[in-house]
Design a protein that fits this description.
Layout lengths: L3 H8 L4 E6 L5 H15 L4 E6 L17 E2 L4 H10 L2 E5 L10 H7 L3 E6 L10 E4 L6 H12 L8 H14 L10 H12 L4 H9 L4 H13 L1 E4 L4 E6 L1 H6 L10 H6 L6 E8 L2 E8 L5 H8 L3 E2 L3 E6 L3 H11 L4 H4 L2
Parallel strand pairs: 1-2, 1-4, 2-3, 4-5, 5-6, 8-9
Antiparallel strand pairs: 7-8, 9-10, 10-12, 11-12
């Protein structure tokens, strides 16, 4: 294991550092990773962000994005960097399975592993852990790591602030989720003071859709939405033919589940999409309803109380039916 004093000593001189995050990275994954990257390179560290897979184009403007390596496109180079690293920062995930094939490489690496995360039930693969399930985003924890553990707030420049603001904004659903505490707002104020242009970041993330994505969204709402009023639940299910018809790209399905949750009486929303031989689920809920419990018990997943995900190897039709058969178990909670 590695204590904070030892970690500070290591970071006092240039190190070979790999930063990685979960597969199909979202705004928090890339925001926290590039925020940490922009912090580390100011101090002369040889830092590289390796994403396990591709990620949405609406995140490509983030400072430092041009230096990101995508593992699936550069496997040999990624493997070499991981093998030669002194430190590996693992951001916004707590199980090596969340980085797909990279998990084996990271697990076998002799580098110290530092986990910065806010998900439940972390695996014991790390040497140092900065972990808090009450944090609204991994980017919040990266800020806390820099400011309150390393005591280096002076290195939060415009690039760091922009990335961390993006991570907090996206994972808090634009500061709307219950864990958006007063502390989060104070952090966000500090990031704006450091140079993050809040309105511009919002434009680049949320008002940057292609025509194809907008038409796909319209199709989902008009043709794929099913409302179950007896359970205050809504389902949007998309098959592989829909993905092909609308030429759906990485990131085009991001946030669609929230439209189902936006209905007044809906307490639980599910977005199901058929990809290859698997069905991926995204659940969102309001209040105290445990979306993560459903994903963990029935769909080999997990997450947060109000935002969780899972996967199934059954057909889309079977997954829809299974999900519906689960709802009676939660009817009392859903009707409260």
């Amino acid at each position: 294991m590695l204590d904070l004093a030892a970690l500070k000593e290591l970071l006092a001189s240039p190190q070979k550092i790999v930063i990685t995050t979960h597969h199909k990275p979202d705004g928090d994954a890339m925001g926290s990773s590039l925020g940490l990257y922009n912090f580390l390179i100011q101090q002369g560290h040889h830092a590289t962000v390796i994403a396990p897979t591709d990620y949405p184009d609406f995140l490509s403007w983030l400072p430092g994005n041009g230096d990101v390596i995508i593992y699936t496109e550069h496997t040999e180079k990624s493997a070499e960097l991981i093998a030669n690293a002194n430190l590996i920062f693992c951001l916004d995930f707590n199980a090596l399975s969340r980085i797909n094939d990279m998990g084996v490489l990271v697990g076998e690496s002799k580098a110290y592993k530092i986990m910065i995360d806010h998900h439940l039930e972390p695996e014991d693969f790390d040497d140092y852990r900065h972990w808090n399930i009450n944090a609204c985003a991994a980017a919040q924890l990266v800020f806390d790591f820099i400011v309150n553990q390393l005591y280096q707030p002076e290195f939060i420049n415009k690039d760091v602030a922009t990335c961390l603001y993006t991570g907090i904004m996206t994972d808090s659903a634009s500061f709307r989720l219950p864990n958006t505490s007063s502390t989060v707002h104070r952090i966000v104020a500090d990031l704006i003071d450091a140079g993050a242009v809040n309105w511009r970041i919002h434009e680049l993330v949320y008002n940057n859709a292609s025509e194809g994505r907008l038409r796909f969204l319209g199709h989902c709402l008009a043709n794929c939405l099913e409302v179950l009023p007896e359970y205050n639940t809504a389902i949007i299910a998309v098959n592989k033919n829909d993905l092909q018809k609308f030429d759906v790209e990485t990131g085009d399905t991001e946030g669609i589940v929230n439209y189902a949750l936006s209905m007044a009486n809906v307490k639980l929303a599910a977005f199901m999409v058929e990809r290859g031989d698997k069905v991926k689920l995204s659940l969102r809920s309001k209040g105290e309803f445990p979306a993560n419990e459903i994903c963990k018990k029935y769909f080999s997943g997990g997450g947060h109380r109000n935002a969780a995900g899972g996967v199934s190897t059954d057909s889309l039709e079977q997954v829809i039916q299974q999900f519906k058969t689960i709802l009676p178990e939660y009817k009392k909670l859903l009707k409260q």
